[in-house]
Design goal:
Layout lengths: L11 H36 L3 H56 L16 H15 L1
Length: about 140
C-alpha cells in the first residue's frame, strides 16, 4: 500500500492520541526543566551571601541560561509535536482506512477487501476481516 501523505484526519481518535502523546512528552519535559531551573538558581542564590555578589554573579548566568532556553525550547517543542503527530497518525490512519473499507463492503461491494500497509498494527485485524468476507461471499 502506498505511503499516506495526509497526516491530519478528521477521525476523533487522532486528536485523542495526539493530545495524550503531547501531554506524556511535553508535560514531564517542562516540569523537569522548570524544577532544574528553579533548583539551580535557588541553590546559587542561597549560597551567595551579599546582594552585590548575587547581582554580579547570578545575573550573567541567568542571562546565558535564558538565551540558551530561547534557542532550544522552541526546537524541542517542535520535535515533540512532530513525534506526537507521527505516533497519533500511526493509530488513527489504519482505523480510518479500516472504517472506509468496511463501509464500502457494507454498502454491498462484496469484492472489496480491507487494505492496510504491511507495517500497520491492525494488519492482522484486516486479514481476518477479509477472510470473513470471503467466507460470507461463498
Amino acid at each position: 500500500m502506498a505511503w499516506r501523505m495526509k497526516w491530519f484526519m478528521r477521525h476523533p481518535i487522532q486528536a485523542k492520541y495526539l493530545l495524550l502523546v503531547l501531554m506524556a512528552m511535553l508535560g514531564p519535559t517542562l516540569l523537569i526543566g522548570f524544577c532544574l531551573y528553579t533548583l539551580i538558581f535557588d541553590f546559587l542564590a542561597r549560597q551567595m551571601v551579599f546582594p552585590e555578589a548575587i547581582f554580579a554573579n547570578l545575573v550573567p548566568v541567568i542571562d546565558r541560561v535564558n538565551n540558551l532556553l530561547v534557542l532550544t525550547l522552541p526546537t524541542l517543542c517542535l520535535i515533540i509535536l512532530w513525534c506526537a503527530i507521527v505516533i497519533s497518525h500511526r493509530f488513527a490512519g489504519p482505523i480510518e482506512r479500516l472504517e472506509k473499507d468496511l463501509d464500502q463492503i457494507l454498502s454491498g461491494d462484496k469484492r472489496h477487501r480491507v487494505r492496510l500497509r504491511k507495517s500497520d498494527d491492525l494488519k492482522g485485524v484486516a486479514d481476518r476481516i477479509n477472510a470473513l468476507v470471503r467466507q460470507l461471499d461463498n
